[in-house]
Amino acid sequence: MRRLNRNTKQHGMEKTTQAGFRKRHNTTIQLVRVMNDIISEFNKSKTTAMTLIDLEKAFDSMWINGLIKKMNDGGVDPNFTKLTHSYLSKRTIKVKVNSTVSRPRTIDSGVPQGSVLGPILFNLYTHDIPDFQNTKTALYADDMATYAHSYYAQAALTQNQIHVRMLEKYYAKWKLKINESKTENIIFARKRTNTKVITKLKVGDHTIPPKDTVKYLGLQLDARLNLKRHIKMATTKGNAAIRILYPLLNRNSGMSQENKTSLYKQVIRPIITYGAPILSHISNYALQPLEVLQNKCMRLATGAPRYTRITELRERTGLPSIREYTTATTERFFRRNRNHPLIASTIQLTEQADTQAPTPCKTRYVVPEKKETHILYLHKMCDYEEEQIVQCPYNKFQMCLLGRMTKWKCHPTEYNRDRDIRFNKKCAEVLQQQQVDPAEGSWHNDTYPTYVPKKKTYGRQSTGEGVEGQQQQS
């Protein structure tokens, strides 16, 4: 298997957007890539149309002779090609009903179910899926998503329609078929009015209307990426796991507190925090159902009564909050995958030189010198375009907890001199007055400059100073 992977990689027979059954690839990486693309376009006031394509019996209908042809044309070692042909050809099946067994029949297509080489051979078979210049593709084994961005939902959907027609011709040529009944379509938009389309997507003879929520790689995505449906589904699964494990988690089970806590960390918490880097950008209010479920598990593990404080339960069990856990998991994820080809553009590392002065920023925290700062694009919409979240090196502020924040209460951002010169000058003056130590970093909550709107004037004023001019005249 390793030699086959190495051989196909050398001959360029790996799809770059394929994240299934490849080294250092998983569902979370593909989800981060897709979510980052959609949210980045949200900040440009663009709409994203996504089509989820499902193949009918993908692994069972793979054309064996077509796979051998692609291996020969791609320059794969002939020994591997002969071995693969011998492995897949002349297979027979029998059907048994009670005590009656049917005659053996030869299998002309497909790979063995449950085999190790099956997914790898399928990736090799579909490595030449056609791309379209106006759309992006995200593959995970036989699950495929194609999406396009535009200021208008109809324009984005039209680009997807063109790509779907190309895929239909490709699949028909290589004896694969799109499952039209399971193919889904969704339109992601910042505003609900941007989701209206006149011409709907067509796959074959079927019309695919846009849905409000779709399930992609285990994540429930809604049209505005609030993830409310996913949080509800995760809470339901977590409660089901608690009911199954209740004989071990209840107060009279005889298990120690440490074992109950370990059981929660190994079984229940992975269920409710699946896709932690995706959950890091949603609000605390949206995460509250998961916090309640974890508090329930902590009470079961410690046997504490209902009036016990949550802070005391966390001290006993040593468990962080869901928000703290997802933030820490996100930071580890991006540090571990900082050079990953699929999400390399999501992470940008910036370093301040020794001679560079501390940069005044529009946040309440001053970024210290000589410290790597992660700039993540996994955030919600804001009033500024292409705004970035700065992950504080000391974790003294939280990451974009609210969507559509006001202009003067924006989340931590990078300093941009051209964006608002007047506001940044005030911020810099405040820092100079407080004599901030750039090596330590500090807060300036009390003297944080706020925007005071001007009073409106009504009618014709005798002077150009509005209400103040009237008071002076009187």
Automatic annotation (TrEMBL):
GO biological process terms on file: DNA biosynthetic process
Chain ranges of the Reverse transcriptase domain: 1-221
Biased composition (Polar residues): 459-474
Pfam families: RVT_1 (PF00078)
Region (Disordered): 1-22, 438-474
Descriptive protein name: Reverse transcriptase domain-containing protein
Species annotation: Tenebrio molitor
